[in-house]
Amino acid sequence: MAKGKKKTKFIPLDQVGKEDNNKIEESKIKKGEPNSPKSTNINVTGVKEIKEEKKSNDKNEKKKIKDEKEDFSVCIICTENVSLYAIGVCDHPICHKCSLRLRLLYGTKECPYCKTELENVIFTKDDKRLFENFNLSDFVYRNKEKKFFYETEEIKKIVEGMEKYRCPDKDCAFLGDDWLSLKKHVKEVHNKFLCNICISKKKVFPYEQKLYTEEELTRHNKSGDPDDKSFKGHPQCGFCLTRYYDDDDLYDHCRKNHEECQVCKQLNKPNQYFVNYRTLSEHFNKEHFVCPHPECLEKKFIVFATEFDLKAHEVIYIN
């Protein structure tokens, strides 16, 4: 190779142009230009873009909620068209009837849609307005105890009227002071009766109760109503002959007032009830294996499903 001839420097194709860029970056570092990694100047453009993006996302979220609210023209609980809305902080409106039923009769403040606990409820006819756009301190009509806020006096009257002892007859405007006065009214004026069991247990407002003739009430208690196939009547306690609202109510009564055979329950024969311990003891002696030792007889309920279980008990505890 001839002296003085420069060496040819080969650069890979994927590195072409990078060498010059590196020199430019080195030059910027020396000068302290803004794009230099060691520059003390802060590029705020990215921060601004992040803030703008966050604002945009927030707006989109609000828009999403507003769009969702358009789907609530029908109540998600009763599926009826809504004319008066109840909304809470989660902005999921339901009809005022279902809201009142949940809060006053079932004792829950949860939104049925998202389960958010709703401390305050606004009653309004505006299904587009968000909860946060209301100022609770501006409401003239409110119920401080229940934390209800009414947009107008008319709405206040509608909501409060739900709880009053209104006659269930749609053509009657009677308002009673209590159940006693309402029952007296329907008997004397309409020659009808209210079901006392439904009054005490059914989760409906007074005006939603059914009216019955004497014959209809008897059928209602024994076998149910023709227009409600799911209701089979109020079950009766075989010992007390008292009727209860449903099976759960009846079993609760039996557990508290009568005796259940726990051995039958273990043998997959639940709900075997007896009027008192004497009749239960007779059942034990007839169907199961009772420990005959005086100490066990005094303790009661020392009874077994099989003779083998009884013998095992005697070996461990008696001998």
From TrEMBL:
One of its GO terms (biological process) is rescue of stalled ribosome. Residues 16-33, 48-63 have a biased composition (Basic and acidic residues). Its EC number is 2.3.2.27. Pathway: Protein modification; protein ubiquitination. PROSITE patterns: ZF_RING_2. It catalyses: S-ubiquitinyl-[E2 ubiquitin-conjugating enzyme]-L-cysteine + [acceptor protein]-L-lysine = [E2 ubiquitin-conjugating enzyme]-L-cysteine + N(6)-ubiquitinyl-[acceptor protein]-L-lysine. One of its GO terms (molecular function) is ubiquitin protein ligase activity. Keywords: Metal-binding, Zinc, Zinc-finger. The keyword DNA-binding does not apply. Residues 75-115 form the RING-type domain. Residues 1-63 are annotated as: Disordered. It comes from the Eukaryota. Pfam families: RING_ZNF598, zf-C2H2_13. Belongs to the ZNF598/HEL2 family. This is RING-type E3 ubiquitin transferase. It comes from Neocallimastix californiae. The lineage of its organism: Eukaryota, Fungi, Fungi incertae sedis, Chytridiomycota, Chytridiomycota incertae sedis.
